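Why run this: before we spend reagent on co-expression, it is cheaper to look at a predicted model of the complex and decide which construct boundaries make sense. The entries below are exactly what would go into the expression plan.
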Amino acid sequence: MSDTTLAATSTADLVADERARSAELARRADSRRNLLQNAGVMVPFVLVLVAGIAAVPNFASGSNVTNMLVNAAILAIVGYGMTLVIAVRGIDLSVGSAQALAACIAASVVNSAGPLVGAVVGIGVGAGLGLLNGVIATRLRVPGFIATLSTMSVFRGFVLLFTGGAPIMIASGGFKSVATASVLGIPLPFVIAVVIGVGAWFALDRMRFGKHVVAVGGSPEAAVDTGISVSRVILLSYLASGAAAGVGGVLLASQLGVVNGSVASGLELQAIAIVVLGGTSMAGGRPRIVGTFVAALLLSMINSGLNLLNVPSFYQYVALGALLVFALSIDGAQRAAVRRMLEGRLS
Amino acid sequence: MTTTVTTPAAGVPSAEQEARPGIGQVLRQFAGRQYLLGVLVVACVAVGFARPSFWGSGNLSNVLFQASFVGLAACGMTLLIAAGLLDLSVGGVIAVASIAVATVLPHTTIGTALLLALAIGAVLGLVNGLLVTYVKIAPFIATLGTLYLFLGAAFIWTSGKVVPITSSKYRSFTTGTVGLLPVPFLVFVVLAVGTYFVLQRTYFGRTLRAFGSNERAAVLAGLPVNRAKVLVFVVAGVCFALAGVFMAGRLSSAEGNMATGFEMDVIAAVVVGGTALRGGRGTAFGTVVGALLFAVLNNALNLLGVASYWQYVLTGAVLVAAIALGARRSSAAEVRGAG
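The model came back. Tokens follow.
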């Protein structure tokens, strides 16, 4: 009699011990994940900032800071859309071509129908292209990366056909001043990027849509079982990514003043790099808008620093490729930490 | 034989009856599998009808050259895709390998230069393989990163300039013809046959297909998955370098962006040829047909005087259509996604 109670209590003790131990493991893995997620972007950011101010001439001058903020803003806006798509386990390789098409069409409409119509048409074109990606990925069931790899080529063909290979000059001074205007000393594109970023953060963190995105990215099968319309969420994500590329394209056209068919090539790599560097996991389900924003600033600082140091632009390719591989390695370590966390909770 | 099939009452074992389907069914099965060959023939006839100059020997050898550049690289890509992997760094590998050839050619023999190019392809493939296998980065994103790394390296090497190939022997070797067929096309056919044997008849090929269709099962079955993964990236790198060798000969020069966007054409040829993007299945013959088909289509656009930009649109649209059709036919709901 007493033997069995003793055995029972010791079993209960063992179970409790095991629980406490695995909870401890899970807690440790969770904190490691948080550390990786935050340190992955903050450490390089601080390093590059300090190195830039210390070693690069004119890095902190007013015009260069403005320039960096405008570039970072355009990159960050595209990055928000990419964050959303990656969070639902997709990817959008066509952002560069979509942005080029939006920029060129916007430029030509600005010349014929005025700045406001041009901007709206540019954003609309981006959204339309995103919708097309979404339809191919969800209705035709083509994997996202290969669907957008194809549309990357298709959109680039369209933009070259549209421009005929010639540059489009923007005549409207008002349209061009959007990129150079400033509000309280802060460049207007940067303000727009912050506003869109806050909106995206709100939608992902506080609205039902954001919960659906996390659910779909975490486990599409479970999301289907919960009654979430998975294909609708994925479709909307691609749509948002296209629209973001459209906004970026309009701002780019405004910044450059002259656009041609080959602008924004290679943008997809930069956008993916900042999203992953910002802590959004390639495994899906964990969007981090703030990280994307900080990483956009980081990449813009790196590019600007290399330019000011007169490093040939080829090295920027190498820097970008290395940055992406670094970010992906961090992402791999983070995923391992998450796995350990989940294993700790389950056992 | 037909009598035995049609008269099962004559004491023929039913097993044999099942093993020998009617001739119509066999034809239909073959047609169902090789419908692409029909598309190719129809395309050739239609283009030849619209522009008789299509059948000129100069134009035909042009088509074969184009098909073999894409096809050489596509042989490696077939192995990768059959293993459920992907390599977007084709353009980078081709650029680096052909720049290497162009740089060393004035100083060494053609054989040494070729070996160097293939070795460089192997090393770059090894980089991709290690990143995918041991750093555990999704293949398409790891190779997107290395595409820019390799392109950057190529631009740095040449300072953005074009490196000419002055050796006339090298040019005549890479662009010569045997009978009516260009040398690169013969190499392509040999490589495609080799790909078929590797994929269908060797332990390595079976390992590739096994982990292409279900990686976890292959690991649990004790197959050397990691080793095979690295090796297949190396093999693919060598194939890409080989394509670069012939492209450089054809262009008489090498430069950093000589093959930008080439990965699209290569993947399109493989996937349209019938290799499943989900992995587990590959067809070298389909890849040959796919490469020829795209070469004929692009040539047709040129002959018809369509702006060359349409080629971007066409390649992308055909690729999406092929995959969408494949997804519709194989009713498997789960498609290998980006993660």
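The mean pLDDT of chain A is 84. The domain at 38-346 of chain A is CATH 1.10.3470 (ABC transporter involved in vitamin B12 uptake, BtuC). Bring this page to Monday's planning discussion.
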